Amino acid sequence: MAKFEVMVGNKAVAYAAKLARVKYVSAFPITPQTTIVQYLADMIANGELDADYVNMEGELSCQSSAMTAATTVRSFTATSGPGLLYMHHPMHMTTWARLPLVMAVVHRSTKGMQPDQMDTMSQRDTGWLMIECQNSQELLDTGIMSFKIAEDERVRLPTIFMGDGYILSYTSEPVELPAQEEVDAFLPPYKRPYPMFPEEAKEAMALMSQMWNPFVDPQNVWKQQQEAAMNAKTVIREVNAEFEKWFGRSYGNGLVEEYKCEGVEAVLVAMGTIASTAKTAIDQLQRDGRKVGLVAIKSFKPFPDDDFQRIGADVKAMGVIDRNVSTGTLGGITFTELRHSLYDLDERPMTLNFHAGMRGKEVRVEDIKRMAEKTLKAARGEKVTPLVEWA
Amino acid sequence: MEIRFHGRGGQGAVTGVRILATALFYDGKFTQGIPMYGTERRGAPVVSFLRVGDERINERDLVHEPDMVVVLDPLLGRTVPITEGLKKGGLVLINHPKGGKETGLGGKFKVATVDATSIALEVIGRPITNTAILGAFAKVTGMVTLEAIEKAISEQWSGRVADMNVRAVRKAYEMVSEPVDVSGVKPVDVVKPVPGDRDVSSWRLFKPEMDKGKCIGCRRCYILCPEVAISMVDNKADINYRYCKGCGICVEECPVKAIEFVQETI
Amino acid sequence: MSKPVPLSKLDEKEFIVPANSACQGCAGSIVARIVSKVIGEDMVRQEVACCGPAFGNITQPVFYGEVFEGAGAMMTGFARAFNRLGRDDIRVTGIIGDGGTTDIGFQGLSASAERNEDMLWVCYDNEAYMNTGGQRSSATTKFAATTTTPVGEFSRGKKERKKPLPILVGVHRVPYMATASVAYPEDFIGKLQYAKPVKGFRFIQVSAPCPTGWNYDPRYSVKVAKEMVLSGLWPLYEVVEGALRITYKPKELKPVKDVLRSQGRFRHITDEEVDEIQGEVDEFWGRLQEKDGGPLF
Lengths: 391, 266, 297
Ligand SMILES: Cc1ncc(C[n+]2csc(CCOP(=O)(O)OP(=O)(O)O)c2C)c(N)n1
Ligand code: SF4
Ligand code: SF4
Known about the structure:
The complex is a heterotrimer.
Chain A: E1 3-8, H1 9-19, E2 24-27, H2 34-45, E3 52-55, H3 59-69, E4 75-79, H4 81-86, H5 88-96, E5 102-107, H6 118-121, E6 129-132, H7 136-151, E7 159-164, E8 172-177, H8 180-186, H9 201-212, H10 220-247, E9 256-259, E10 266-271, H11 272-287, E11 292-297, E12 299-301, H12 305-314, E13 317-322, H13 333-342, E14 350-355, H14 365-379, E15 388-390
Parallel strand pairs in A: 2-3, 2-4, 4-5, 5-7, 6-7, 10-11, 10-13, 13-14, 14-15
Antiparallel strand pairs in A: 1-8, 6-12, 9-11
Chain B: E1 2-8, H1 13-26, E2 30-35, E3 45-53, E4 68-71, E5 90-95, E6 109-114, H2 116-123, H3 132-141, H4 146-156, H5 159-175, E7 180-181, E8 206-210, H6 220-224, E9 230-233, E10 236-239, H7 249-253, E11 259-263
Parallel strand pairs in B: 1-4, 4-5, 5-6
Antiparallel strand pairs in B: 1-3, 2-3, 6-7, 8-11, 9-10
Helix pairs in contact in B: 1-4, 2-5, 3-5, 4-5
Chain C: H1 27-39, E1 43-48, E2 62-65, H2 71-84, E3 91-97, H3 98-103, H4 106-114, E4 119-125, E5 151-152, E6 155-156, H5 165-170, E7 176-181, H6 185-195, E8 201-207, H7 211-214, H8 221-230, E9 236-240, E10 243-248, H9 256-261, H10 271-291
Parallel strand pairs in C: 1-2, 1-3, 3-4, 4-8, 7-8
Antiparallel strand pairs in C: 5-6, 7-9, 9-10
Thiamine diphosphate sits between chains C (28, 49-51, 66, 68-69, 97-100, 126, 128-132, 137) and A (29-30, 59, 82-83, 86).
């Protein structure tokens, strides 16, 4: 039976791994991820979870060992900010070997302790799927879904599920814990995805040669990875819908969550806890008669471009809030990707961008309301400057 | 309803807020307990927030204008502006041995006091006030039942530890004073530390007192004080209390026992 | 060979701003203060992620590199670059935690030692990752409860023994390697003074108990460190160009039991577990005494 517990976001993440019955956990502490691996250590010490838990000597090793373990058993690791940067090299290897490893990332800036998305954005092109969460319940649910998405035959890509450090990791709120039997039914046992036993030498060799063979098109690896990521769009929707059937909760269509978007002239586009706070801002604005809604990006990779084309065709302006920056390119990273999605529309909405919340700078309801007003102004056809703003 | 908690690293403010968030949830409320984390270590002032609502709370910024402030440490108000942003007509619940008008707080709000430190020392044996204060909270706000707090505590701890904390809660529930209006009281000035100012005297629970007559000038305390709060004046050790955190290392290490450890008074 | 320095011989000059943001009774703070005092004017300090920045309240230049894994490499860059401009008067000094030394930083430590880079690496050893809340490191003593080696029905604390780091550095045949303890400041200062003018790779691992992570009253920080030396848990010795010398010899080792039991992190251990640690301590101490005055290997 499901039960409720008031817990911090990091505990919800640990529960996701536990309920998925992971068999290998590689751990290395880093604020604000640390308590995830501490909770898992406690669960193992108390006999609640049966898994190999290895305190590694650094994140390079966390990622590398979780990768090889994932050839054989369901594996999990978690990190933040600099730790994720230190994993970068084996992360590319994990997608190369197409191993469905799942990792939790608790966002921490790459320049300082406080949260922003520069850690995961710096891994944008490793081929990992990346799914963002707004609250602790969503972390738990998304964690469980991530295993199912990653392990789907059509996908077989490692997956990050992520949430903002501090704001989620240490905040306690009520979370509904699904029953183990139901999770077991939802998430079937791990199928060994990669032959490495001596008796499988032939298959192992064949795989290796696919990866290294100089006579096949060298671009194939990337091409197949791209196809898998595109397949993931369908798989994520399916898994989200199936989760709803089992547990009564789902998150938009799995890729984006549209919040109060009926009949609006403009939308804000945001991710993670900024999207969560933006809901309060939208509630207040709509109460005052403003026609503005919110689109929360849940799946950043694969990027939900079909959804944005659909939404973009219906509104006059989109204000994108980015807790990140791509230095040297005007605007934030979701802004750039969103504009790319809209390019093929016959009639494109006006798009604005706000850099906000970087290095943990607080984003308040008032801040978001101001961004919404500016976006509405653009929707009315008025001139707004600057196009990209440091909020 | 938005509440701000003030405490010190190591006093358990974070755990206290989580227990309260759990108890309120048992009483049918949706809660969000937000600790403000930095690199604070044991002894440094810390802040946490609690939001209480009827459904999931989406807002995820910090609380800037609380309806209520809860203070775990009687001395914090000297250096931290604990009533900043408090709504007019709001409530302060403070761990303090004296009455609401004698806490040094004044303004357009009410103050309730409870001597949580004494209760904790008596019942738990350590000056950990995070649970006792919850009993007082239940009484002055009427927002949460004692049963719910006790249930939440029994999930956090078990056995003797849970019992002691439950007793501290009940005792504080009995002992907390009625909130009194302090609009006529002139507040004591808060001496906010300026950046770079290293005054750590508020960390101290005990104070090392030097008997210069006994000091033999061996310099052991001088080289071992982690804060470099001790200098040698005329070959006698001299403590600068601005820099002393009251760790007690000098007290332990003095070979001639020239330093005594005395409890700080409010 | 180092010689203990009487505290009366210390000059008054400080390179530290009094009071820091570390915990009450932090022994790591004592290490940082003594190092900056003894190395003095010529010091440039390298930090990586650890509690170090909490006691980085010094007046010498500090480079805080968040690259936790990179202490050895970052110090190499400084040392080489300063040297290139003829500034070999500058003492590149690292004040690095045990994690940044024996775990994530070990590759860089060994590599810098092998290249004999001109640096002084001081490791303050609080036996865990304290900055992140007390997780085990390879320097944690066996059976200690840490936040990633909790005690429970299926766990007795840390499973593995403490990595013998000083010996490992010693076998790199570096110009200087020593152990030290905050409880023996005269010995520690003597070692720093000896190491200061030496060219090449110098390493000192200093026992620096942590009241927060080891769970004892902050006032006992130095006392705990002292008991560790007196019981042989942390022997004081040095290796100069391959030759080992014990720098402090208690007449008879105290049993480890009391010092272990005085710390919350060992509160759960059984008599058999104490005996196991006692056995290892006795064995190691015996070997050290055999090697004393001769080559390390
Ligand atoms: C690549 C990377 N991984 C993890 C961290 C998080 N982190 C910061 S300090 C620290 C522990 C430091 O331990 P130690 O070196 O023993 O020093 P202490 O904190 O005990 O002083 C960790 C794990 C980081 N900053 N960077
Ligand atoms: S109590 Fe601690 S901080 Fe204060 S003077 Fe003594 S050693 Fe220094
Ligand atoms: S956690 Fe330990 S090592 Fe770190 S500052 Fe506190 S006492 Fe010092």
